[in-house]
Amino acid sequence: MNREAAITVEDLTVAYGEKPVLWDVDLTVPSGVLMAIIGPNGAGKTTLIKAVLNLVNTAAGQVLIYGESYQKQRRLVGYVPQRGSVDWDFPTNVKDVVMMGRYGALGWLKRPGRQELDMALAALEKVGMSRYAERQISQLSGGQQQRVFLARALVQDALVYLMDEPFQGVDATTERAIVSLLQELRAQGKTVVVVHHDLQTVPEYFDWTALLNVRLIASGPVRDVFTEENLRLTYGGRVSFLRHGEPNGAPEAEKRTGERGI
Amino acid sequence: MDVPGLFSDLFFDYTLRTIALGSAILGIVSGALGSYAVLRKQSLLGDAMSHAALPGIALAFLLTGSKMPLVLIVGAAAAGWVATLFIMSIVNTTRVKYDTALGMVLSVFFGLGLVLLTIIQKRPDATQAGLDKFLFGQAAALLERDVVTMGILGVSAILITMLLWKEFKLLSFDPDFASTLGFPVRILDIILTTLIVIAIVLGLQTVGVVLMSAMIVAPAASARQWTDNLGIMIILSAFFGALAGISGALLSASVPRLPTGPTIVVSVSVIVIVSMLLAPRRGILWRWWRERRQRGRLRLEGILEDLYSLALEHNDPGHAHSLSVLRLMSAGKGGVEKSLEILSERGLVRAVRPGEWALTTAGLEEAEKTMSERSGMSDER
User: Fold this and answer.
1) Which of A88, A100, A138, A152 to mutate to test the interface with B (most CBs of B within 10 A)?
2) What is the DSSP string of A186-207?
3) Which of A183, B56, B123, B185 is the most buried (most CB within 10 A)?
4) Best mutation site among A90, A95, A97, A134 for testing chain B: the one with the most B CBs within 10 Å?
């Protein structure tokens, strides 16, 4: 396959204090894939996304978006942070939060207007939240919060989307709705990178995957790299759903989990 | 106290008008900027900054020998800023947590300020008189030129807040997302923090360093109770701040020996208490009332359902059951008789014999309706 690379990560190393969170990661995400980043807790999945977005200080390495630095290509990248990263008791409503996705394109000082509102309403329609446009964000359920964040990313009208656990705490119906939305984005030629936790659904939802545990274990098409061997390398012995009776000795991965929750 | 007289003095008495205007400005600016401090969970930063301002005031006086408010305000602001920098770097470079760093910096700076103040007051000349009013504030000492200085600074702070409305909103709600959109989050943070420092130093002369943080936190926390809209919250917070500022300052100016800072803080505390108790939806009384109503409704529904299931067992909707059975079924929650009376007033149950109750036809329908609604609700989740 010889597609253009949407995201190129080279020699990326991130450390919090003494401890490396990401170690020498080289990763190429081809344009137009729907990719899952998987790995145990504390494997650096969120940090990888944040490093691509220049939200954490990197010790080494660089990130390119379509061959140019992120600073130059910022407008091409949309971001869905973890739902729990904001205070949902903030005094604002759903359509206001979605319009925030347009703030970057608006630039300094200009206020959102009719056009931004229309875009926000269209995005809310897409995620099935039109009825909630005027709703206080404190009155939303977890799945609704997640869909508001997705709508905010949609109005960014980006080429590359980075999403941190968009399925966290949503019910089965919402999960299916989100998946079909992501697949629609891919069908439009966009690149979607998702931090994902549920190994069972990886082959069903995604066509590309990266297995991460501080180091990059493997990345590529799901059917090539989503193998038992790679999963064991990533999770230690803890992947029990593939085969029972696996020795349950994966202290390495567990230890990391304890120190830095996600 | 002569209330009508005080009111007319407010408009015609020069001193009183100056005091009221100064306190209003202080209340508006600290109320508006305080909203951001509260929403960004930085309420205590205001406390640290205002206490830290004391050594700045003392040093500014020692270095310049001037008691010009502008000179002292610049000293206060500089010290407040240095304190903030200390807090940030302690948090970033050591394992000390944010609240501990706040506490350390606050007490060290405040202690230093008290030492400097004592040194100044031991000096033989008379120029030092009055610096100690910065501890608890003294509204009566406000001069017209002070109010003009406060006005210019306050209007600038509010104007910047309005200009950067969208940016500050995004910064307060989701700074990471703001950064990915290309906004320089660190610079915005510095601007907003500077504005909060300005709001604090504006109030130092009137409220004093010890209690100024209340003017940052209390109006905003009260306003949050009444609205879910950021713009309305900030306007309301500014209004509460002005209300507390004016009433406190006027009280302290008309009653001899009443320090202004504590009086203003008592006024703002009244606003806080009223807001915490009475605000719709978020207020304690409102929530208590709603919970009570909810509980009452559930109890009535429970008894209807009990009667319904008894009727099902006997295969006879009109079958009467004694009070003691119903008491047993409601698991000792009490109030069974009272609930039955309410239900019979609504025509949902009837007493077949004294102490024996049965569903009416309407009651039967109602019971079926609530039970199907309840199962519908669990589907929606």
Assistant:
1) A100
2) HHTT-EEEEE---GGGHHHH-S
3) B56
4) A90
Q: Which two tokens stand for residue A143?
A: 């799945």
Residue type, A164: D
- Hey, what amino acid is at B280? P
Q: How far, in Å, CA of B12 to CA of B215, rounded?
A: 27
Cα–Cα distance for residue pair A68/A6, rounded to 1 Å: 10
Over residues A159-204, the pLDDT tens digits come to 999 999 999 888 888 899 999 999 999 999 999 999 998 888 999 9
The answer to whether the beta carbons of residues A34 and A207 sit under 8 Å apart is yes
> Tell me: the pLDDT tens digits for A5-51?
899 999 999 988 778 899 999 999 999 999 999 999 888 999 999 99
Give the start-end residues of each E strand in B193-348. Answer: 321-322
pTM of the model: 0.83
Q: Could you tell me how many residues make up chain A?
A: 262
Scan for tokens 């010290």, then name that residue: B79
Tokens matching residue B65: 């020998």
Query: In chain A, which residues have their Cβ closer than 8 Å to the Cβ of B184?
Result: none
The shortest CB-CB distance from B224 to any of A75, A79, A91 is to A91
Say if residue A137 is exposed, middle or buried (CB neighbours under 10 Å; 0-12, 13-18, 19+).
buried
SS3 label, residue A261: coil
What's the CA gap between B87 and B104, in Å, rounded? 9
Measured distance between the N- and C-terminal CA atoms of chain B, rounded to whole angstroms: 60
Contact A109 B41 (CB under 8 A): no
Residue B224 near residue B44, CB atoms below 8 Å: no
Neighbours of B182 (CB within 10 A): 14
Query: Which residue type is seen at A183?
Result: Q
Kindly tell me the number of DSSP H helices and DSSP E strands found in chain B: 17, 3
Instruction: Give me Rg for the CA atoms of chain A.
Output: 19
Orientation angle between helical segments B144-163 and B185-207, nearest 10 degrees: 160
Residue A7 sits at φ, ψ, to 5 deg, of -130, 130
